[in-house]
Every structure is written in C-alpha cells, then in structure tokens.
Amino acid sequence: MFIKKIGCVGILLLFIACSTEPLITVNSPSTLQLVSEAATKETKALYSNLSKMSDEQLLFGHQNTTAYGVKWYAEPERSDIKDVTGSFPAIFGWDLGHLGQGDNKNLDGISFDFIKKQVIAAYDRGAISTFSWHMRDPVTGGSSWDKAPSVKALIPGGSDHDKLKTYLDAFVEFNRSLISTTSNIQVPVIFRPWHEHNGDWFWWGKGENLTSEQDYISLWRFTIDYLRNEKGVTNLIYAFSPDRSRMDINHLPDSYFYGYPGDNYVDIIGLDNYWDLGHPSNNDALSLRKNNFIRSLEAIGKIAKEKNKVAALTEGGMEKIAQADFWTEMILDSMLTNENTKRISYALFWRNANKERENKDHYYAPYTGHSSAKDFVSFFQHPYTVFENDLLNIYK
Ligand code: BMA
To answer: What pLDDT shows up at residue 208?
Structure first.
C-alpha cells in the first residue's frame, strides 16, 4: 500500500516494498462502513487504507499547496513542502468558497479549474484530496463569516431551502468533473463541510443569534442525504470537524459531540486545532499547550476506535511557526504518545499565503530558509510520517 523510507526499517517493510500486491483488499473482513454504502471501490479502499495505516503512520497534508507559497505564486508543480522535502504532501486541501455563483475563482483567488486539475493530477500520482467550504451565506449574500441566523431558513422547511440546493447542485456538478485522466475513474475526495460549527465565527456556527444545535444537525444531515440519496454521489468520505478552542479539555470526549449528526452521517472524526499549537489568544505555557494538544488527539483517537471510524487532525497549525522544533517536538512527539494519539490518520496544515500578494505573514508550513525547515526535514524523514512520495496503492 505504501513504501516508507525502506533503508531504515526492517525486513517486513522491505517485503512490502518489494511486493506489488496491496496490503489491504477492499473486501477484506472489516466492519468499516462508509456513510455512502454505494461508495465506489476506490473510495472504500481509500477509507479502509487510511484506517489500516493510521496506527503506524501519519499522512501529512497542506492547504492550497500547489497554488502558491510564501515567496512564489502560480508556478506549476511547485509547493513549499516540495521545496523543503522534495515531495508533495500526501493530502492536498482545497476550499470551495464562492463556488456556484458564477465565480470562476474561490475565495482565495484560486480558479476552480486549477483546483479540478490539481485534484485529478494528485489522484493520478496516488495522492489524496480534501475539500472544505467557506460557503457564502446563500440568504444574505455575505461571506462565511457573516453572523446571520441563516441556517434556519436553509434547512428543510425553511424559506430559502432551495437556495441551499442551488449551492449543493453546483458542488455536484464540480464534483462530477473530477475524473482521472489515466483511468476514467471518479476521484475519491474527503469532503469536510460546515467545519468549526462549535465556534461562533461562521454563519453555521453556534450561538443564540446564529444556529441552534438541532438546526446544525439538520443542515448536516440534509447535505449528506441530498448528495448521497438525491444526487447519487459515491466518491465522498465525510469529515466532521469541530474546533478545539470551543471544547472543554476537561470534558472530552463529551464536549466534542456538540452538533454531532450521528454515526451514520460521519466517516472521519476530525478536529481543527490551532488553539493548542500556538494561537495568539492562548497564553498557556508551551508544556501545557502540548499536554492539551495530546489530550485532544487522544479524545478523537478514542472516539474513532469506539466507532470504528478514522480520526484526523482535519485542520491546524501554528501561524508563522515560531518554534524551531515544532514539527518533531510538538506534532510528531504528540502523535506518538500512545495508542490513541497514534490512531490519527492525517494532519492537514493550513495555507502558506503569498507574502507579496496578501501582504501578511499567514503561513502554517515551512518554506525554504524558514527557521523550522530543518526540523521539518527530520519530520519528513521519520518513518512515521507519510508524504506523496511514500504512497502506493492507497486506492486499491
Ligand atoms: C482562513 C484564512 C483566510 C482564508 C480562509 C479560506 O483561515 O486563511 O485568509 O480566506 O481561511 O482559505
């Protein structure tokens, strides 16, 4: 299924590396179940392989990685991750914000055509893509940070329900175009809608004047039912991703479950965690932050085990990475703490905004010359981490 730094591991991995057979077959005895029972065999294989790999590996992901980096823009085949390590990440994150309203670019100025081509190319090279969606508010036309109580109007029975369908239809159409150029197969994607809903910054977020828990659940369930049942979508793995900053660390796992739509509606037990990794509003000492980070990972690892699902750090990082050993000490060491933290399948780090165009230091992965780049190479070389170059047959 994958090859990882063969030189430094034992005979077993050597055997795996020499074998062309996938380690896992799709129909291997397993009780793993996807939200979409009719998922394509490549989608099932991806989910099954993520699950099987998770105890031994962590896949590295990066948002917008081939669109731009801190010091470059629109250079085909480039990524800050590739600049530093020689490999693309294993997971490519993209955002669908602004889809479906005649815009041909997303909210960060990346054309949907580019995203489509990148998703297909990543699949053809054996890598994985995931979508988030900073959806504009279909009721007010405001951004996803619009603080309007729009969910009530968008869910079934609401006055603007049809508007939500229009947006989802645009996604169905876009999704339909994700066809491999080498095999004619529809590309499996990890879809992560309505993220960080336990925060109060998006219009689908928690709050008296925003969205009630019940309405959020209704929004989530409708989204999945519509895509899966009405539109026959079969290439998606659904990730649920509340934000750590609004969880009570002393009441995990309970406080994870705010808005949880039910086991039949979630494939990936995700977590967005910037809070413990160096958020400007978190003044806790590094040792406490690390301890809390570990506890948050333990919680999702445990939940995933109990529910027989996949756990992931669906979004996170430390803006500017002001810790030279961040990658090995904060991320890797935490992930390796125990059997629950080891269950995390992948970690997606947020985008490296282009400094010149956006005029800000807004990046979450190193670039060549950055103070954490050396440590990132050690992280990359560690047998536990997986980048695109390490992947083989993840869809088989
Ligand atoms: C946020 C920031 C924004 C960006 C949005 C969607 O966290 O990075 O600048 O527009 O994600 O990518």
So the answer is: 87
